[in-house]
């Protein structure tokens, strides 16, 4: 090969490589990672991207070089020279991609395994009992075992997220709060259809499937508020099935869990339901995901506007209180014109009696 050709090829390769690198670096393709797991995924992303840029630069340089140097002149009617393969070249272009693909597979497998890893490997017997606990499909706290991660039970339903902290007296919230630098295991359940949990800055998605307990490990490394997004088409309100993940200091997190313990769970105590429990129930059951209701600061638009409940009851020809109760436990009995049957889940029929009454009072009282 002539020296001039090599210089031309290298110049073209550098130009195409620089162009592709600029596209990769200057456009923010991925959000800024906020967890250790997202850092690892970022690493895989850049590992693969670097390989792709190198191959793109090589291929583009050779193509452009060939187009200009080997093109047929207008007066050239000859056939090209007959070429019958080049064993050396064929070995190289098979072996190099095979090595690169194998490297990508190994890096990805290591990252996936690490991203599922909990801080310290439990002993064999602990692992066995952990397996048993997933068989009955119940979210379990870490108990008194300091080696186990903080567990958050995540319940997905049309169209809301609910987060429960069994290690902190079953504190309950419609936003996910996590202490920074602490490894957390989310245990996900779905009450109706398949949903999928995603916080872009945490890097990973995990499905919530009815009848299964799926898991996701997160170690937040940056304070802030990030969106929680449902990324599985789950019904009319799918696009609105959003919440927030708030990463906070450990101290603030602990005092927050204490403030949450009195809320929605306090309402389960038989007949004695605190008056402020109505709002907590409204939010913890995800009503705010679909309905507008000013007293709760809710702005959902999937279902009817609950600020107009009195008008709806009049249209339905029913007294307000029984109308509200029936609309919760048997939502298809009367559907406001303009809305569809079967959109509101029937799962609220299983609300404990005291919670149901507190919710009815709350909705009735704030009309
Ligand atoms: Cu839940 Cu989409």
How would you sum up this structure in a few lines?
The chain has 367 residues and is α+β, with helices and mostly antiparallel strands.
Structure write-up:
The protein is α+β, with helices and mostly antiparallel strands and 367 residues long. It folds into three domains: 3-69 and 87-115; 131-262, Cupredoxins -  blue copper proteins (Immunoglobulin-like, Sandwich); 269-365, Cytochrome Bc1 Complex, Chain D, domain 2. Helix content is 41%, strand content 16%. It has nine helices and twelve strands. It has helices spanning 3-26, 36-69, 87-115, 124-135, 250-261, 277-284, 309-316, 320-329, 353-365, and strands spanning 150-157, 160-165, 171-173, 176-179, 184-190, 195-198, 205-208, 214-218, 224-230, 242-248, 292-293, 298-299. Strands 3-2-1-5-8 form a five-stranded mixed beta sheet. The protein has a five-stranded mixed beta sheet with strand order 4-10-9-6-7, covered by helices on one side. A two-stranded antiparallel ribbon has the order 11-12. α1 packs antiparallel against α2 (36-69), α2 packs antiparallel against α3 (87-115) and α6 packs across α9 (353-365). The N and C termini lie far apart (85 Å). Mean pLDDT is 85; it is low at 121-136 and 263-272. The structure holds dinuclear copper ion.
